[in-house]
Specification:
alpha+beta, Peptide Methionine Sulfoxide Reductase, Chain A, six-stranded mixed beta sheet, two-stranded antiparallel ribbon, 8 helices, 8 strands, 20% strand, disordered N terminus
């Protein structure tokens, strides 16, 4: 399946199929930076990204629902699993994009979205990713007045979110939250990484 075709996944099954059919040599990156509609909306438009799936990670329960995560009892973060071609987009660049479009210094908050589900996190899948993430955070810390509070932990089970969350910005560009919040993050990525954004 080609890159452009894979981005058309609108449902849970289609999103998981796209991730499962990633070309040989693809890698996974899992990040959390507030509402997953924002992070998915950015990465789904990046050259070199095969799929971006919204979901939940690093919580206490299995098969969490959106309602459970929003209540805060499950302990999960809203996250995005990015399957990418490292020959086009390396892991450090994934992190650079991620840290550009969210604030890593606000604990359990992004803008008006508050709660542990909105925490900043990098969930590495290999020792190499861990080393890159820790080094990159150390590199960029001087740019911020406050400490970076991004959690960097080994990726536990990633639970894909419900169908209506997948490709949310693409399907609902005029929705209030998308116009007020998501579009701004996508625009910021387009301005900072014009050669990587395909739309």
């Amino acid at each position: 399946m080609g890159l452009a075709q894979s981005r058309g996944a609108h449902t849970y099954k289609e999103a998981m199929a796209a991730a499962a059919e990633a070309p040989a040599g693809s890698e996974r990156a899992i990040v959390a930076g507030g509402c997953f509609w924002c992070i998915e909306g950015v990465f789904s438009r990046m050259s070199g990204v095969h799929s971006a799936v919204s979901g939940y990670i690093n919580g206490k329960s299995e098969h969490p629902t959106y309602e459970e995560v929003c209540e805060g009892d499950s302990g999960h973060a809203e996250a995005v699993e990015v399957t990418f071609d490292p020959s086009t987009l390396d892991y450090k660049k994934i992190l650079e994009i991620f840290f550009t479009v969210h604030d890593p210094t606000t604990l359990n908050r992004q803008g008006n979205d508050a709660g542990t589900q909105y925490r900043s996190g990098v969930y590495y899948t290999t020792p190499e990713q861990k080393a890159v993430a820790e080094a990159y955070i150390k590199e960029i810390q001087p740019r911020y007045e406050s400490p970076i509070v991004t959690e960097v932990v080994h990726a536990p089970k990633f639970w894909p979110a419900e169908d209506y969350h997948q490709r949310y910005f693409e399907k609902n560009p005029t929705a209030g939250y998308c116009r007020a919040v998501v579009s701004g993050k996508v625009r910021k990525a387009q301005e900072k990484f014009p050669t990587l954004m395909i739309r």
